[in-house]
Write a structure and sequence with these properties.
By secondary structure, this protein is of the alpha/beta class. The chain folds into two domains: 176 residues, Rossmann fold (3-Layer(aba) Sandwich); 168 residues, Dihydrodipicolinate Reductase, domain 2 (2-Layer Sandwich), CATH 3.30.360.10. Helices cover 34% and strands 25% of the residues. It has 13 helices and 16 strands. It has an eight-stranded parallel β-sheet, with helices on both faces. Strands 9, 10, 11, 12, 13, 14, 15 and 16 form an eight-stranded mixed β-sheet that branches. The chain is globular.
Length: 354
């Protein structure tokens, strides 16, 4: 009998997640529902496309006639879908608000429901990134899971990959060079590069704090610091990293580790638009699901006194890496420790080289 998944929101994360799960619903043995709060003429085609792919429209009670006037036939009200579904994935910026208002009361009625939120919803639940802290997911007793942001996926992949267990990370410093907004968004674009503030006294920006909290779930406590700035581009985030590790590590060692890890990719490209274009042409829904893409021409390793400083630039596949972690968390919530069998359906969306 199929399990039921409800996705809240149809924005830059919600829309591709709905489409992805709907396309693979038969292989994953799930029914897909999505909640659209506001009926908009501008979204008519998007909603119809998702329904045609096999997803079921969920709306707020009382808005049936407005949606029907736009050509949509709702399947359930939000309240009924919340009661029906086994897994709820919140892709809006209001996950913590909804947790207090809707999810905790729903959990009182059914203790087996799992709620997943995206990115910036700090404190929603246990932080998670696929391939980084899977052991924490498998030991999780919490009904609430927070899939960390795309930049946190990138930073965490570098922390996990670049220093081996024998070498160990001494310290890491990261600069998140963020795009202004997504190509689908019409607001928040900026006229010129904008530097961010170091509001966290220990970690600089929330990016290092979030990565630290992610590793804390598996009893690791990396010494890391981050900065952030925003540039007037819509293509991709870029991460500049400098990591000091124990032992002697060559550039070839780092590239070999990237190539052997299924979640990381390498590229000879140095332009964000080239990486973005590859994702548009070859990725699912235009996304790259890898945690990070290392630009090998930027890589530099310097050995000194038994330690190595490793620096370079990585491209962050924004949204893509967190989409895959959301699916993983949902599959684990439904299938327990056999979830990796279902995640094999997504292996073809992970690239070795771009």
């Amino acid at each position: 009998m199929n399990k039921n998944i409800l996705i809240i929101g149809t924005g830059t994360i919600g829309e591709p997640l709905i489409g992805l799960l709907a396309d693979l619903k038969d292989k994953l043995n799930v029914n897909v529902y999505f909640h659209k709060r506001t009926p908009l003429k501008d979204d008519m085609v998007k909603v119809s496309s998702l329904v045609n792919r096999g997803a079921n429209l969920v709306i707020d009670s009382g808005k049936e006639e407005v949606f029907r006037s736009l050509g949509h036939e709702p399947t359930l009200t939000y309240e009924d879908a919340l009661e029906l579904c086994d897994v709820i994935i919140d892709c809006t910026p209001a996950g913590n608000v909804a947790k207090e208002k809707y999810y905790l009361p729903a959990l009182e009625k059914n203790k087996n429901k799992i709620f997943i939120a995206q990115g910036s919803e700090k404190g929603f639940g246990m932080p998670y990134a696929y391939g980084i802290n899977d052991e924490a997911l498998e030991n999780n007793k919490n009904n609430f899971i927070q899939v960390v942001s795309c930049n946190t996926h990138n930073i965490s992949a570098l922390i996990k990959l670049i220093p081996s267990a024998q070498e160990g990370l001494i310290k890491g410093d990261f600069v998140c060079i963020r795009r202004a907004n997504d190509i689908s968004q019409k607001s928040n674009f900026i006229a010129s590069p904008e530097v961010g503030q170091h509001k966290d006294p220990n970690f600089g920006t929330h990016h290092a704090r979030d990565a630290y909290d992610l590793f804390r779930t598996i009893q690791q406590f990396p010494n890391i610091f981050s900065s952030a700035m925003k540039v007037n581009s819509q293509y991709m985030h870029i991460l500049r990293f400098n990591m000091k590790v124990k032992g002697n590590v060559s550039e070839k060692d780092v590239i070999r580790r990237f190539k052997s890890n299924p979640f990381t990719a390498v590229t000879h490209k140095t332009l964000a638009n080239k990486i973005f274009s590859f994702g548009r042409d070859h990725g699912y829904y235009g996304r790259i699901f890898n945690h990070t893409v290392l630009s090998t021409p930027s890589l530099h390793a310097r050995c000194l006194d038994g330690t190595t400083d490793i620096s370079g630039f990585c491209f962050t596949p924004q949204d893509g890496n967190s989409l895959l972690s959301s699916v993983t968390a949902a599959m684990y919530s439904i299938y327990g420790k056999s979830y990796k069998k279902y995640m094999k359906h997504f292996d073809s969306y992970l690239f070795k080289e771009i």
